[in-house]
TrEMBL record, chains A, B:
Name assigned to this protein: IclR family transcriptional regulator
Occurrences of domain HTH iclR-type (ranges): 8-69
Domain IclR-ED as annotated: residue spans: 70-249
Protein origin, superkingdom: Bacteria
Gene3D superfamilies reported in the protein's UniProt record: 3.30.450.40, Winged helix-like DNA-binding domain superfamily/Winged helix DNA-binding domain (1.10.10.10)
InterPro entries tied to this protein: GAF-like_dom_sf, HTH_MetabolicPath_Reg, Tscrpt_reg_IclR_C, Tscrpt_reg_IclR_N, WH-like_DNA-bd_sf, WH_DNA-bd_sf
Species the sequence originates in: Actinomadura fibrosa
UniProt entry keywords in alphabetical sequence: DNA-binding, Transcription, Transcription regulation
PROSITE patterns linked to this entry: HTH_ICLR (PS51077), ICLR_ED (PS51078)
Length: 266, 266
């Protein structure tokens, strides 16, 4: 999440309150909302009350607050995300059916992986990732793909910004990660093993638009001990290419359609 | 969408602007946003500019505005919806795999069907419904289920409120709809044929919580000419019961978890 200056205008304060929930916390109490949004308690109390009255937040009986269904409904109309999701879903269903593993679709956003859609492999490794969550670029299959094709300044910023360890085999050395993403660019796919979560492995592939620019990444997340590249790669790259064709065909003549997403990622 | 009084406070104005997009329009220009939100052009212009700066709205090169990815991300954290979605997705994937038809999950909201999740049957009838969209209760499989188990005052309000025709066989007579939903309560499932869209048929079944209250509906949407109850009902009711067990187990001890959704529907 980008840093937000201490909000001055009321609209800025409203956005800061809603942003307090963007980190994925389901419920926050008033003082936590105010702390995160940089608002005095009285101001926070008044605005949160208005947001509850409007259905944008919901008050839980224990006194905490959570994002309301009305806000979910408005957010679900975001075309940059839902357009891509609509195109991807049939291909993701095919991938699920072929592999019964977890299928993830993600885009680059603020130097993180933003998970746009996910099908859960009920007989595969449990994945806690939620739609709308963000993940680190350097430790995930989708992330390595997005990093490999990101503008050079994004890649350098990530390499220079520190590579926290998430699991035993997370790549924490910038030079090793640089070699890894160069390999992704050469081969056209990424592989992770025990890098984000012990026991989970993933393969990722790029989704391209009509000009060949990488606009998203598709991945399969499987158990490390049963993750066999020869089994996972052919359906993954097939689905990623089929989705790329749909993206190229669907967004033709609408050059703005995904540009906000790309720009946001850059 | 509930009626909203002309907004007075700035927070109310911000919510009114965002609400202008809730009807599912992908892009709106400034004057349309102001008309829908009841704001003067100067006020609307200033607040829309702030929302664009904050990433809540995005400005498209043609000068129109659309919901931004940041708002999508915050909205996707709404626990009443995403909790249900997370529980339902594995069962929906099983249903998709068994039938290859469209699978829909919906809740009651403001006397309409709110679509929470959808898997698209690539070899079934095309369905235009998007996640986050609302549908009429009287013309859909999920809607008839939700209507059948809704509080009596909701049912009477829908019956008295007019039943618009959407397709050749939409039930437009209140007494016929009343008999239909009584039949749904007796049989435990709903059926529609050419009632929402010509050529599309659906079967719906209730999802219950630990106390037996209906909290959602699950449906299969198929081509009318190939919709065979004997084929569609067994997997549908099996999946709806399995999901009900998960809802009952998962939400136990958290009685508030779905109550906001139920209250909103009531």
């Amino acid at each position: 999440m980008a840093e937000r200056a201490r909000p001055i205008s009321v609209a800025g304060k409203v956005m800061a309150i809603l942003d307090a929930f963007a980190l994925g916390d389901v419920r926050l109490n008033l003082s936590e909302i105010c702390r995160r949004s940089g608002l005095p308690l009285a101001t926070g109390h008044r605005l949160v009350g208005e947001l509850v009255a409007g259905g944008f937040l919901e008050r839980v009986p224990d006194g905490t607050y959570r994002i309301g269904t009305r806000l979910w409904r408005i957010g679900s109309q975001a075309p940059a995300v839902t357009g891509l999701r609509e195109l991807a879903l049939p291909h993701m269903e095919d991938l699920y059916e072929a592999t019964h593993d977890n299928v993830q679709l993600a885009v680059l956003r603020d130097r993180r992986v933003l998970v746009v859609e996910r099908l859960r492999g009920t007989r595969s490794v449990p994945v806690v990732t939620q739609v709308g969550a963000t993940l680190p670029l350097h430790a995930t299959g989708v992330g390595k793909v997005l990093l490999a094709y990101a503008p050079a300044e994004v890649r350098e910023a990530v390499l220079a910004g520190g590579l926290p360890r998430h699991a035993p085999r997370t790549i924490t050395d910038p030079e090793e990660l640089r070699r890894c993403v160069e390999q992704v660019r050469r081969s056209g796919y990424s592989v992770t093993r025990d890098e984000m979560t012990l026991g989970a492995a993933s393969v990722g592939a790029p989704v391209r638009d009509a000009e060949g620019a990488v606009v998203a990444a598709l991945s399969l997340v499987s158990r490390t001990r049963s993750a066999d590249l020869r089994r996972l790669l052919p359906p993954l790259t097939t689905a990623a290419r089929a989705l790329s064709r749909d993206v190229a065909a669907h967004w033709r003549g609408r050059p703005d359609a995904l540009s906000a997403e790309r720009k946001a990622g850059a």
